From TrEMBL:
The modification 4-aspartylphosphate is found at D55. It comes from Streptomyces hiroshimensis. Residues 151-216 form the HTH luxR-type domain. Residues 4-122 form the Response regulatory domain. The keyword Plastid does not apply. Keywords: DNA-binding, Phosphoprotein, Transcription, Transcription regulation. InterPro entries: CheY-like_superfamily, NreC/VraR/RcsB-like_REC, Sig_transdc_resp-reg_C-effctor, Sig_transdc_resp-reg_receiver, Tscrpt_reg_LuxR_C, WalR-like. This is DNA-binding response regulator. The keyword GTP-binding does not apply. The lineage of its organism: Bacteria, Bacillati, Actinomycetota, Actinomycetes, Kitasatosporales. GO terms for molecular function: DNA binding.
Length: 223
């Protein structure tokens, strides 16, 4: 079965470009387009896409609010949201991740990265680009805890090893990289990540990374 994709962007030319890229792939099918967040909500209900490729700044309803409604508790379907951004709009990305996006990608990313990101998100994983994540969090460090505040009580439910894994997830490491860093197997890492998500009530690695920074466990710029 092909992955059903909905394109949401207020620029028709960009939507056309994305459509051409995606329809060249046998496992991807563009099922519709929308020019703003309100149209996106209607299209999600009508078309039931697997992945919504979502712009951030749009008229009538922006991508953050549309993402919140698509992925929220009253959602009508299984759609995942992959946010598109530019460096000029970085401040909106963290809000989109909080709203429930499964990841984000730069609009000028190579075509193969766009295709792979859609496949990753459709498979239930998070698309968390380490370099962009670090740049974002470093840039907006002033809005995050200084590290002097007490850590939230929920962190105390984690074992020491689970805390280590959470810190590495927050820095954008893959399971393979975490396994190499901690000298354990990838299966063990997957188990730890699963425990972290369950104990903290988080949906995926993206939310785990945001949580780690917002809680003060990891500070922007720290190695």
């Amino acid at each position: 079965m092909a992955i059903r994709v909905l394109l949401v962007d207020d620029q028709p030319l960009l939507r056309t470009g994305f459509r051409m890229i995606l329809e060249a792939e046998q496992d991807l099918a563009v099922v519709g387009e929308a020019g703003d967040g309100l149209q996106a909500l209607d299209q999600v209900r009508a078309l039931q896409p697997d992945v919504v490729l979502m712009d951030i700044r749009m008229p009538r309803m922006d991508g953050v609010e549309a993402t919140r409604q698509i992925t929220g508790p009253d959602r009508d379907g299984p759609a995942k949201v992959l946010v598109l951004t530019t460096f000029d709009l970085d401040e909106y990305v963290v809000e989109a991740l909080r709203a429930g996006a499964s990841g984000f990608l730069l609009k000028d990313a190579p075509a193969n990265e766009l295709v792979q990101a859609i496949r990753v998100v459709a498979g239930g994983e998070a698309m968390l680009a380490p370099s962009i994540t670090r740049r974002l969090l470093d840039k907006y460090a002033g809005h995050l805890p200084s590290g002097e505040e007490p850590l939230p009580d929920t962190l105390h439910t984690l074992t020491d090893r689970e805390v280590e894994v959470l810190k590495l997830v927050a820095r954008g490491l893959s399971n393979a990289e975490i396994a190499a860093d901690l000298f354990v197997s990838e299966t063990t890492v997957k188990t730890h990540v699963g425990h972290v998500l369950t104990k903290l009530g988080l949906r995926d690695r993206v939310q785990a990374a945001v949580y780690a920074y917002e809680s003060g466990l990891v500070r922007p710029g720290a190695q």
